[in-house]
Amino acid sequence: MENKTRNLLSLKAEFHDKGKASRGLKNIMGFIDNNKNEELKHLLRFHDPIGVYGQELVERFEIDALIEYYNLVLVSVFAGYAPGKLDEITSGEIIAALNNPAVKPYYQKHYTYKMVQYTLQFVTENRQFVQEGNATTISTFNEFISLNRFLKRDQDIERFLGMLDFVWYNNNTINDVNEILASPKKLNEVFTAKNKTEAQNGVWGFIKYTMFLSQLKDLLVATEKYPLLQSSFWMFHGYYFDRMNDKMKQIFNEAFENLEKTLGDPAIFKKSIEEIYGGEMPEDLSEKQLREFAKTIIDQARGDVSFVLDTKWAQPLNDYFSS
């Protein structure tokens, strides 16, 4: 068995054969095999005017996990990690799930996610991409997977991304997160609250997500010579980047200015570092050093967010699939 085929099987074992994606496949194929397209279409409806709650929301998250796996397979192809042409079983499953008329509006119209459309196009057109894995492409792909695991493990980030994806938590939405980020007083309460509200958890998620964006920036820079891999890294998360540009971009400057002011308080800065990294700050740092450290971190985060959210990173993949 070739290494690339073995690599694909390892991805499948971790991200497809268990957990949410496995249940998502069982759910979606249950609808399709039993000719319940109308029921599947209703499950994957837009959330307005008929809201999505409870078990329906759980089932949609599971289908989202399955779709995410399919997209990860496409990224692995551009990395030279998996075979450049997908096998019939993998391709057939992707086509069955994503090309179903009850599923297509979900990612084409209701919650536009271009990467899904490109994943389907890659297999329906029976495309092949030649990329031999090398130290850069394989190492960055492995780091990309590690970053994705980090996103899945952190409950604050999960809450923030859920809010970006139209989900309400105890009537708290992304608008409540933005309201906190726009208020130094409310932002200060986030760092001092013992029992956090869902919106405050969302703010913590935003802060941690900016750390992820900084690390993703490093991967984008490292893959400069591999524009399709670089673009696929970006577009894999492009749905949430589009949501941030739509719902948050106008408050970014104010948010980072307020974070800099709030974290300028040495006690709050220490507390935030301890909560994020699970460790303690050195006691011998002066207040001036702590303030400078906080300013440096916020300035870097501000620049990294602007760098990553630039939609130009989608262009190489757009060009590839339009040719």
SSE blueprint and pairings:
Layout: H1 3-15, H2 19-33, H3 37-43, H4 54-78, H5 88-98, H6 104-110, H7 114-124, H8 135-153, H9 155-164, H10 174-181, H11 184-192, H12 198-222, H13 227-236, H14 238-247, H15 252-263, H16 266-277, H17 287-308, H18 315-322
Helix pairs in contact: 1-4, 2-4, 4-7, 4-13, 5-7, 8-12, 9-12, 10-12, 12-13, 12-17, 13-18, 15-17
Write up this protein.
The structure is a single chain. The chain has helices at 3-15, 19-33, 37-43, 54-78, 88-98, 104-110, 114-124, 135-153, 155-164, 174-181, 184-192, 198-222, 227-236, 238-247, 252-263, 266-277, 287-308, 315-322. With 323 residues, the protein is mainly α. The longest helix has 25 residues, at 54-78. The chain starts with a helix and ends with a helix.
Query: What count of helical segments does DSSP give?
Result: 18
Overall mean pLDDT stands at 92
Number of spatially distinct domains: 2
Strand content: under 5%
Number of strands: 0
The ordered H/E elements are HHHHHHHHHHHHHHHHHH
Question: Which oligomerization state do the chains in this entry correspond to?
Answer: single chain
Question: How many angstroms does the end-to-end distance come to?
Answer: 32 Å
Which class best fits the helix and strand makeup? mainly alpha
Uncertain stretches: none
Largest sheet: none
Radius of gyration: 21 Å
Basic shape: globular
Helix content: over 70%
